[in-house]
Amino acid sequence: MHVRDLTQFLAELSENNNRAWFVMNKPRYDILRAEFLELVIRLIGEISKFDPAVAACNPKKALFRINRDMRFSHDKNPYKTTFSAAITASGLKRPSQGGGPMYYFHVNAEGMLMIAAGEYIPPADRLRAIRQQISSDSTGFGKLLKNKKLLASYGSLQTGEQLARPPKGFDAESPHMDYIRLKSFIVRKEQPLKKMLGDELQQELVSSFKDAYPLVNWLRQINTPV
User: Fold this and answer.
1) What is the pLDDT of residues 122-156, one digit of tens each?
2) Whole-number Cα distances in Å, 51 to 56, 100, 144, 203, 215
3) What average pLDDT does this structure show over 168-195?
């Protein structure tokens, strides 16, 4: 896809985040959206080679809408300034829908590429199941944390949002308590897009998602109680 055209469009949108500008530039958006969809189609095909579970993911449903949901937000800008997609085995993007672990990426108006994988703020029952798995299989989780490719590509799991104390029902002395307290189980990284043109972007995404597969696969093995 035309990376420079995409970042230029997003930069202009961030300065003119209104319906009138967007309507005038809709033809540009449609072309870029179609190119982004083609990229996601190719990604699903490449990811399926090491993670066959995502082969049935609907690429159109993997894309996020550019329109913002402003109902509960103080920010009344109508459009997002990113192009983003989430590839999952279930085809569902939202944690609340039971989407499960995902491969996610977005391109923003500053020309940055963000790549992530795992589960972001899963619902309560799913969160508890993940925490219980960490507690009951501390050895297996420890091996995941030491995975060489995962570490080299992303470093450790993101430790941003977490409980101040152990969650109810968990012993404070449990192994990996720092991870049991997490509210999300993801790896992520950001890098500039300026040197990634065409196939280089796809190659970077496929390589990074392959490095994240051990986390995605570990999460996928966890059954959520019905």
Assistant:
1) 999 999 999 999 999 999 999 999 999 999 999 99
2) 11, 14, 17, 16, 12
3) 93
CA angle, 87 as apex, 82 and 13 as ends, to 5°? 10
pLDDT in tens, 1-45: 789 999 999 999 999 999 999 999 999 999 999 999 999 999 999
Measured CA angle at 192 (ends 10, 15), to 5 deg: 25
Classify residue 145: in a domain, yes or no.
Answer: yes
Write down the pLDDT at residue 140: 95
Quick one: pLDDT band at residue 95, thresholds 50, 70, 90?
A: low
Strands of 82-88's sheet in order across? 82-88, 102-108, 112-119, 185-192
Domain assignment present for residue 111? The answer is yes
Contacts by residues 174-179 (CB-CB < 8 Å, ≥ 24 positions apart): 174/135, 174/138, 175/135, 175/138, 175/142, 176/134, 176/135, 176/138, 176/141, 176/142, 176/145, 179/134, 179/141, 179/145
Number of domains, the chain: 1
CA dihedral 78, 80, 85, 90 (to 10 degrees): -40
In a domain, 136, yes or no: yes
| Cα dihedral 34→38→44→49 (10° resolution) | 180
154 within a domain of the structure (yes/no): yes
The boundaries of the domain holding residue 77 are: 3-220
